[in-house]
Amino acid sequence: MSQAVLHPGPVERRSFLNWFLGTGVGAFLASALYPVTRFLIPPRVEESTAASVALDLKAAAVRPNSGQIFKFGKQPGILVRTPAGELRAFTAICTHLQCTVQYREDLQHIWCACHNGHYDPVSGKNIGGPPPRPLEQYTANVRGDKIVVSRSASA
Ligand code: FES
After folding, report:
1. Is the beta carbon of 129 within 6 A of some atom in ligand 1?
2. Buried b (16+ CB within 10 A) or exposed e, 71-87
3. What's the CA-to-centroid distance between 63 and ligand 1, angstroms?
4. What is the pLDDT of residues 35-82, one digit of tens each?
5. pLDDT tens track for 98-125
């Protein structure tokens, strides 16, 4: 009788082993399935609600054939002064896989480094590479010596 107290029987060891392996397998499955689930069902990303933004740069300082990234709400935008001197603004999020685009002075257009995507700097139209759609175009106006970028044409 005292021997049963000092040495647990095979049933107790087996149940402990089953519990131990079961929780280990459960933890492994949870750690493997959680990232897969988050990838398949991503969390909601809030849309940027900013309607317009005044950029912290003077219009005269933006030289032709150049571009720069700015923050439009929570998302990046790109301001372009075309080689002809027109100011244009677009979302800076590539329509392919959402990389941030940039302006290439040597190519004289907007370019995405991720997969060599190309966009027209005047219209934002996708002109080369994998991007399936044009960049969303914003309106860029000069007010005083500041540049104001807005979503609508009336800003
Ligand atoms: S993410 Fe821009 S070309 Fe693929």
Report:
1. yes
2. ebeebebbbbbbeeeeb
3. 26
4. 888 778 766 655 556 789 999 888 888 999 999 999 998 899 999 999
5. 999 999 999 999 999 999 999 999 999 9
Which of 119, 145, 121, 116 lies closest to 133 in space, CA to CA? 119
Strands 126-128 and 75-81: unpaired
Question: How many residues appear in the chain?
Answer: 155
Is this structure's pTM higher than 0.70? no
Ligand 1, residues 102, 104, 114: which to mutate, most atoms within 8 A of Cβ?
A: 114
| Residue with CA at minimum distance from ligand 1 atom 1 | 97
Beta bridge partners of 67: 80
Probe residue for ligand 1, chosen from 101, 112, 118 as the CB with the greatest number of ligand atoms within 8 Å: 112
Asked if residue 64 lies in contact with residue 85, where contact means CB atoms within 8 angstroms, the answer is yes
9 C-alpha vs ligand 1 centroid, how far in Å? 63
d(CA 144, CA 123): 25
Q: CATH homologous superfamily for 52-150?
A: Rieske [2Fe-2S] iron-sulphur domain (2.102.10.10)
100: CA distance to ligand 1 center in Å? 8
